[in-house]
């Protein structure tokens, strides 16, 4: 089938961008032309136009070039692409409408120089929250990528969340708090009788809490707060859960003090974490490809891991028991591995992004040589009695 082709100038004019922009995207590898003629002329097609639309849309929504790279170059059909952009735009519209309503509310109450400065402060905070739309999208997407890899390729068929749920002694629980609940995956498929029970799910991200509330409905109390300052009275809960959370908190000792404070004297704290061998093969892969790549500036298991967790917890709890989760991943496709790598918090986007095709071929060659990639999982749960 004949494809209509455009020279660089025609392509730029059609998209209402400068030729310099098109050449820059070509140079960094973000938008390569479909064809390069023997005389060096670039030829762009309608499919390149769709890719450019996606780049410009994400750029307008506040994504950096490094963040756009993996999103644009991932295998995503046209429907998925536009659905993703529509969701982001709807979030931006809701935020802008709320901002407008707040301004109109202030305007209607202004009389002479009598200004409610508390409303002005709230408006300032709301205005600065615009970037959180992008941050929430990235956090939610990265979290879903990670969960998807484990769901599809874990050899322990029980799965992490059902296993974790099974460790919780609900016979002793009427009031429960989960801090850092993320997308609420622990509760999605694990049913519990909620009669005479109060379950509070919290996260420091308002976006995550909104998503949990939308997914789980009104059966759970969803709240936004930091676990270093839990807004409940002393001895209120029978159990607190922190699933892969403690290594992210700013002040882990303050967080543990707060957990101990809100637990009743017979209460139990369930907190999970990773060991030093967790997903080590992933790091080996990127290091072999380019030794400059650092997937995380902080080794989470050094902050709070299976090796040092008991020593950190013992000052706050009388009994601390560790249960390990036995599992590994066996992956026979490169895409989920690459998606996982690109979801990390390090510098991989800027290094791998322009070389994504080369990196995919590198991972494919490893899989072809071995048949699959076996990845260590090193995770467990501390059960702590107050």
From TrEMBL:
Protein's name according to its UniProt entry: MerR family transcriptional regulator
CDD domains found in the cross-reference section: AdoMet_MTases, HTH_TipAL-Mta
Origin superkingdom: Bacteria
Cited Gene3D superfamilies: 1.10.1660.10, Vaccinia Virus protein VP39 (3.40.50.150)
Origin species: Faecalitalea cylindroides
Domain HTH merR-type: 5-74
MF annotations from Gene Ontology: DNA binding; DNA-binding transcription factor activity; S-adenosylmethionine-dependent methyltransferase activity
Family matches, as SMART domains: HTH_MERR
Keywords per UniProt: DNA-binding
InterPro entries: DNA-bd_dom_put_sf (IPR009061), MerR-type_HTH_dom (IPR000551), MerR_fam (IPR047057), Methyltransf_11 (IPR013216), SAM-dependent_MTases_sf (IPR029063)
